[in-house]
Amino acid sequence: MTKQRVLCVVGPTAVGKSDLAVDICLKYHGEVISADSMQIYRGMDIGTAKLTTAEQRGITHHLLDIVDPTSSYTVATWKDEADKTIKSLGKRHLLPVVCGGTGLYIRAITDDLQFPERPDTLQIRARWYTFLETHGPHALHEQLERVDPLSAKRLHENDVKRVIRALEVAETADKPLSEGYDWSPKTGRYDVLLIGLFMEREALYERVNRRVDRMVDLGLFAEVRKLLEAGVTPEHTALQAIGYKEVVQCLQGECSAEEAIESIKRNTRRFVKRQLSWFRRDPRIEWFERNVDGTFPPGEEDRLWRMIADYLEGKRTMPHE
């Protein structure tokens, strides 16, 4: 039986994934499935760099604005929803274009990862977030080192969401996260083409800095203030995202606005490094360079469209097959 084709556009923050995904959908009759763990939240538009309606250019985007920021949401839930969307698009002969920088979401689709959860997971998660609030990310990471040193080595201490996820697994599963998954690329249920975008590092950092300045100009501080007034607390996962946690600290008097903005830029640059490290481990990704203005160097764009055309016409064999 022929596998459903799914095209994924991946890469670091600010490299231009969303615009390319829309271009692909316009050219090949597709719809976008967001693979961003923060764009799922309603009311978090500026700090997550969601495309505006105009920027979406008439292309339907799925899995945006689907839960409130006070809600818990897991990769398992996202995968279920993404699978349903892919199935629906396939029935309508539309190309699913999964686009985002959340590496685990992408791997959930490409490798058909399974994420069984126990009923007590939410309570455990809440306890670790309380621990984080009291003791900080370094102490949290030390807790992971005690129970799952391999996962601790793989995860940076500031990546608190995944550190807590690994701690949950250590408590609820028979094996720690590092032993429970084989992270080597494997064949999933879909015929996947992985398109990766990258940019010269200093050029990408320049785009990151400009993006943060634009977020501030668009009203990032007001957006965070509105979330706090609506009952979203710093303990909720949503407000631990880069861009939000720093503004919360400013609004709570822990730093100045200028210091918060510089922290956002610095933390985003560090996040970019972690994203690239994650995606570079997957040999299936076909990489394409972009210039700082979003254009492609000579020959890159032609190579990109040829590869996509060959893939959709069934002329290309994937490396893992």
UniProtKB/TrEMBL annotation:
ATP binds at residues 11-18. It is an enzyme of class 2 (transferase). Pfam families: IPPT (PF01715). Substrate binds at residues 13-18. Signal peptide: none annotated. It comes from the Bacteria. It catalyses: adenosine(37) in tRNA + dimethylallyl diphosphate = N(6)-dimethylallyladenosine(37) in tRNA + diphosphate. GO terms for molecular function: tRNA dimethylallyltransferase activity. The record marks 102, 125 as: Interaction with substrate tRNA. Its cofactor is Mg(2+). Catalyzes the transfer of a dimethylallyl group onto the adenine at position 37 in tRNAs that read codons beginning with uridine, leading to the formation of N6-(dimethylallyl)adenosine (i(6)A). Belongs to the IPP transferase family. This is tRNA dimethylallyltransferase. The gene is miaA.
